[in-house]
Specification:
- The complex is a heterotetramer, with two copies of chain A (164 residues) and two copies of chain B (165 residues).
- Chain A is an alpha+beta fold and 164 residues long.
- In chain A, β2 and β3 form a beta hairpin.
- Chain A is built from four helices and eight strands.
- Chain A is elongated.
- A three-stranded antiparallel beta sheet of chain A has the order 1-2-3. In chain A, strands 6-7-8 form a three-stranded antiparallel beta sheet. A two-stranded parallel sheet of chain A has the order 4-5.
- Helices cover 35% and strands 27% of the residues of chain A.
- By secondary structure, chain B is of the alpha+beta class.
- Classes of the chains: A alpha+beta (164), B alpha+beta (165).
- Chains C and D meet through β2, β3, α1, β8 and α3 of C and α1, β2, α2, β4 and β5 of D.
- The complex binds adenosine-5'-triphosphate (2 copies) and magnesium ion (MG) (2 copies).
- One magnesium ion binds next to α1 of chain C.
Chain lengths: 164, 165, 165, 164
């Protein structure tokens, strides 16, 4: 129904601005419904990173776009948390500072959702409760091993194999 | 509700049976390029009912079955089972644990099971209907698609919000 | 022939004049997200004659002019100059150094110069015609486009090879 | 003309297989011209990473696709080197081992081409002859500084500013 959609839209809009400000340390973000029938209209995104002018998202950088998308995802999770969420290298375009902001944001959702994250980034690995290493020791055949993050040498190490 | 276990065998590069136990909180998946990390996420998307091979990076569904290596013959069947802890009753069934299974044979024949009982594809998608889990939902964010949420056309962004409503 | 110098002013986030000297070999460009790294590559693509704003991540060419910050007003003109060392005579002109310049005013008026002499857009694209440099060539690989070479349709891949012939 | 195109196609095909084998430490790669008029036909890519079966490229992983694309680029550069080449975060999807293979491959071309590389990866920074740091010390305004890679502490440091 139209009312439910409009109500959800307003809530996501509010959450989006809040999570954007957390990801970017300031600035603002807006979801704008296009003119016309609310059951058909598309949704525009306009953002203003701190210190910059309001601009169309196509001018944003690769890393900024990934941050905006993550802020939008978190805005939606706040309204309708999904029981588990699988993120595949969502931190790839981010620099170290933004990976830190992303993982901090993630921590706010751990009471509501379970996360499974594929990553190459040591900072993201550090915040994981458990880690699976994936290998193709035999070429072309995938196996998984339980691993853990060793905070002393900032590296991962293997536990006894998981597949026995 | 949360994800407890994933069992994969004969699906994509999982020639041998692989079992992964998940806890609540955050589980990391790491490893070199091409070793099978995204295939883990494809296996979850597949068992939850994905019908488009393209969304699973294949040309046809037969690409989901292990097609062999230089040293191993191709497999005859792909099978994935996903087990949820349903103690909070989010899924509309009276079981404490819910295991969904999907199989595909080389012949093209498919099988679907809920807690080891044969069912139809529709029974699985109906099970997850209002849970926020499913192939179109934002709970499975594929590699490289994160900025598509932002770069999509205004009408496509609407779909994302409609799912939330 | 190699790239010696890039001078940018009023183009995208380059509010103030910026000058970059290049050597032969490999030059690295590093920095945090959103600071202007890809804008450097956009400035080179623009001065070499790019006519599509979309390829420069803008909605229209006016997006190429510095549009201001919270503390600064918008700029009135974008200007980029690219200087090549032409000692080996690869470019069909008798100069040892070749500098190409492109300007865009808020009014929409454009100017093109080779070694400070006004010319047309076509003169610049003709200059680089057989050199392997230019906006369509594979010498400017944008962010995120590397696997498009592979994921493109078979007919599109043909274009890449035709440029090589 | 058709002959020139076919001759180029054969050369690129040969180079592509060779540079693929270098990037993947083995295996093989093929460019296949589709049926029909050689002036119209599209080009298919079929690859076989070491130990794996021959397969369509859509099944490759994110990192493998980036490596195949890089191998194809290098195959083309061998035939028609471009005087300068600008690569924007081409190493982002690669793991450390593959970044190493990429930078080794790049070294083979330094006598023919000049490279400008945008990267967040320390291993790639290490092989640069000179480095420019880009900052927005004043929000929204881009500046560049000369930097150099310090091999002792595996980090970059600023030289006197370049823009004076
Ligand atoms: N049906 C199949 N049979 C056997 N192997 C397959 C099949 N489908 C895909 N693969 C293999 O899976 C590999 C890709 O795995 P995947 O995409 O999961 O890698 P990844 O770990 O995500 O790597 P990256 O870090 O580069 O993203 C390919 O190399 C391919 O050979
Ligand atoms: N006309 C303009 N005027 C002012 N600023 C602009 C203009 N066009 C783009 N920008 C700014 O440039 C920034 C993007 O820069 P760029 O894409 O070069 O970042 P980057 O350094 O490549 O980052 P990443 O590492 O995330 O790829 C945007 O934040 C945008 O605000
Ligand atoms: Mg992957
Ligand atoms: Mg960039």
């Amino acid at each position: 129904s139209v009312d439910l959609f409009l109500e959800t839209f307003e809530k996501v809009k509010e959450n989006f601005n809040r999570s954007f400000r957390r990801m970017f340390n300031g600035g603002r973000a807006e979801l704008i419904m296009e003119e016309g029938d609310p059951m058909e209209a598309g949704i525009e995104i306009v953002v203003q990173p701190p210190g910059k002018k309001l601009q169309h998202i196509s001018l944003l950088s690769g890393g900024e776009k990934a941050l905006v998308a993550t802020a939008l995802l978190f805005a939606i999770y706040e309204i309708k948390p999904c029981p588990f969420c699988f993120l595949d290298e969502i931190d790839a375009p981010l620099d170290d500072a933004n990976v830190g902001r992303f993982t901090n944001m993630l921590r706010n959702f751990l009471d509501r959702s379970q996360f499974i994250i594929i990553t190459h980034n040591k900072k993201t690995m550090e915040m994981c409760d458990s880690i699976y290493g994936v290998t193709m020791a035999e070429e072309g055949v995938t196996r998984l091993y339980s691993m853990q993050f060793n905070k002393k040498n900032n590296n991962v190490q293997t536990l006894p194999p998981a597949n026995e | 509700m949360y994800l407890r276990k994933l069992q994969v065998s004969g699906f994509k590069s999982f020639a041998d049976k692989v079992e992964v136990n998940f806890d609540k909180g955050v589980t990391g998946i790491i490893g070199p390029n091409g070793c099978g990390k995204s295939n883990v996420s494809d296996s979850i998307r597949w068992v939850l009912g994905e019908q488009s091979p393209r969304r699973l990076r294949g040309q046809g569904m037969a690409d989901m079955i292990f097609n062999g290596t230089v040293n191993r013959p191709a497999g005859g069947m792909a099978e994935v089972t996903l087990t949820f802890d349903n103690a909070d009753g989010l899924l509309p069934v009276s079981y404490r644990e819910v295991a969904v299974t999907r199989r595909l044979h080389r012949s093209g024949e498919s099988e679907y099971l809920i807690n080891n009982t044969k069912c139809r594809m529709k029974d699985i998608t109906d099970l997850f209907l209002d849970s926020g889990i499913g192939t179109s939902a934002y709970s499975l964010m594929e590699q490289g698609r994160v900025d598509q949420v932002v770069s999509a056309k205004p009408k496509d962004r609407r779909e994302l919000l409609e799912e939330t409503a």
